[in-house]
DNA sequence: GCCCACGGCGTTACCGGTAACCCAGCGCGC
DNA sequence: GCGCGCTGGGTTACCGGTAACGCCGTGGGC
């Protein structure tokens, strides 16, 4: 379905001539400032509507010397959790009058390539940049590019706790490990996320730490790329003979693949092994069996990131935001040991 | 991670003064037009780099009297298939020098509300509008708003065949029904998508038609909202006593919910009933059992939609695009009858 | 030796807005 | 009757680019 090409839009000058006033009066009506006789105002508004006036945002930006776009460095923006972050960013940005300029990059790709993408964003004079891909490569690329505008690096909804001299750590992974420990699981195997990702390394670090705290050797049986297919492949390495009673998978989609791999090999969940993920994607409740996971509010994470960036843009005092609390969602894929 | 607020950017006038030339010479170097002495060009380029010049896109748009943004009316852009469409649109648009301005609306919401969202897009002087939400409400809202620019209404990757006096029809649904018929299934139950959606009604129409062609009464047992949860609920109404040997679900996510509901009730798939979906989301291969579905290339659909819109913008001759072929992916959830 | 074309720039106008400043007329106090 | 401030608006400059045009010097054709 299409519509024909229409002719050139009316400007405030056209409207001014039609209403018999100066263009400045039209501008005043548009902005609602200054004092204007009601009669004049109505005449202008009538012409505005009749001529179907639409403001030229470029001209407005130019005259106001103020940008209204935020560059977003996204990645696989079609993936559920990350695009929920984007949605949250969009909601806040729109309310604040900003428009998003989304650049898709492969966050695990070549640093030079990411830098080029960032540079192109930089060359397009946006008001600020929001990076939603917490990978090492993106962080490095950000170091390379000299931005003239504020940059905010989001943690992509994955809540982390960072104390003064401790590194950032995944709360979600801690919740999963505590849940498993509560159920009596101490021999927990782990399928990690892609190594360039901050959230993957954060979760893995917490897993290892908790295992050591239990006096157990960490059992990282594989590493995926967040996809169900990679979880399926990684779970092939799960060997019941090694004694693990639970399997912690770094995200829900990989957990789906892992569940499938275990089912094919006749390993029952949760009777033979408990399985838990992270993210709480909407589908997780309908896996077979329904997956125990940690709910992360990605949209709210996006809100927070956007608010932080906008406050950086408008008032250059940076205060680090508080992320919402993640909560563990226990479902049938985990059960008490024994 | 953040960076401080930097000072105001350099303009071509700053660069011109620094290089000892006129601003027009700088503009020429920037655009690569006109004849310039290599020595002068180098001097300008050096200053460009030294002052970290970034073009002001607003000013450029203004001077060129040409818009560079495309408004996209999206919906649940965080959902897998739809955001793949967006990604495809983005890829093409970026290559053509356009930037996306994405507006999220609830495509099943109030027509007035959608109209308002469209109007705000319209008021922002974009080069064209691409609607990626094929719902009746969005179509109605598009009728209300008088656009000054080309509008393209995408079919969101779902391929349809439209003959002259026939309505558009879902090819994907036809593929599923043929596959089931090949396996001997004639008594096929159906879980439909939300009624406002074109793709839902297209798929349902094809389902009904095929059933009647087989001399069977259509068995629409429920209607969902595309989510796994709604598929789970709808599948509660599946009664094996009614004789259906297969269940066709209008998309994969609802099919996941349906699989779960069937499993909970002890109905085996595919032994007791075959199940098929549409979309081929990446997770479908890891459902229990892996889901027979129809692969739709959403990203390519986005490419095509964007190309169509851009050609409408640049040369107002509208030619309807060819969508890529969908293909059936047979997996374990469907089996020969008997 | 003259004219003209062309390379290599500079000048100026303009895109569509906003903002600072200016100005006429009126009502008012004194 | 005069100065004052306020209302209601017009004039003009400017934002940072692009485009049309003009100008100067040089070199080649005749």
Number of helices of chain A: 12
Average of per-residue pLDDT values of chain A: 86
The run of helices and strands of chain A is HHHHEHEHEHEEEHEHEHEHEEHE
Radius of gyration of chain A, in Å, reads: 26 Å
C-alpha termini separation of chain A: 62 Å
Strand order of the largest sheet of chain A: 2-1-3-4
Percentage of residues in strands of chain A: 5-15%
CATH class of the largest domain in chain A: Alpha Beta
Helix proportion of chain A: 40-55%
Strand tally of chain A:
12
Structural overview:
The structure is a homodimer of 338-residue chains. The first copy, chain A, has 338 residues and is of the alpha/beta class. Chain A folds into three domains: 12-55, 434 Repressor (Amino-terminal Domain) (Orthogonal Bundle), CATH 1.10.260.40; 66-158 and 299-314, Rossmann fold, CATH 3.40.50; 169-297, Response regulator (Rossmann fold). Chain A contains twelve helices and twelve strands. In chain A, strands 2-1-3-4 form a four-stranded parallel β-sheet, sandwiched between helices. A four-stranded parallel β-sheet of chain A has the order 8-7-9-10. In chain A, strands 5-6 form a two-stranded antiparallel sheet. In chain A, helix 5 (80-95) links the parallel strand 1 (69-74) and strand 2 (99-104). Chain A is elongated and about 90 Å long. The model of chain A is unreliable at 1-6 (pLDDT under 50). The interface between A and B is large, with 69 and 70 residues. Chain A binds a DNA duplex (30 and 30 nucleotides) through helix 2 and helix 4.
């Amino acid at each position: 379905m299409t519509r024909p090409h229409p002719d050139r839009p009316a400007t405030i000058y056209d409207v001014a001539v039609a209403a018999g006033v100066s263009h400045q009066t039209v501008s005043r009506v548009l902005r609602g400032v200054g004092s204007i006789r009601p009669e004049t105002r109505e005449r202008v508004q009538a012409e505005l509507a009749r001529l179907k006036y639409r403001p030229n945002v470029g001209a407005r930006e130019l005259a106001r010397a103020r940008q209204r776009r935020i560059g977003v460095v996204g990645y696989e923006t079609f993936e559920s959790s990350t695009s929920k972050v984007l949605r949250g960013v969009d909601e806040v940005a729109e309310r604040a009058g900003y428009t998003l300029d989304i650049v898709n990059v492969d966050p695990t790709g070549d640093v030079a390539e990411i830098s080029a993408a960032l540079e192109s964003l930089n060359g397009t004079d946006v008001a600020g940049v929001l990076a939603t891909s917490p990978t090492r490569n993106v962080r490095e690329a950000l170091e390379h590019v000299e931005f003239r505008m504020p940059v905010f690096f989001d943690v992509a909804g994955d809540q982390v706790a960072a104390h003064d001299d401790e590194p950032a750590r995944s709360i979600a992974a801690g919740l999963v490990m505590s849940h498993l420990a509560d159920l009596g699981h101490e021999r927990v195997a782990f399928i990690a996320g892609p190594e360039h990702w901050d959230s993957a390394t954060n979760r893995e670090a917490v897993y290892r730490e908790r295992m050591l705290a239990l006096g157990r050797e960490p059992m990282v049986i594989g590493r995926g790329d967040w996809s169900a297919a990679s979880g399926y492949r990684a779970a092939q390495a799960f060997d019941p003979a090694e004694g693990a009673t639970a399997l912690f998978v770094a995200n829900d989609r990989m957990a789906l693949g892992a569940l499938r791999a275990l089912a094919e090999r006749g390993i029952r969940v949760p009777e033979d092994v408990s399985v838990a993920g992270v993210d709480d994607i909407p589908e997780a409740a309908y896996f077979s069996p329904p997956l125990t996971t940690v709910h992360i509010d990605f949209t709210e994470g996006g809100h927070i990131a956007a608010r932080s960036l906008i406050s950086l843009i408008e008032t250059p005092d940076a205060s680090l935001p508080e992320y919402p609390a993640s909560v563990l969602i226990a479902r049938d894929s985990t059960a008490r040991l024994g």
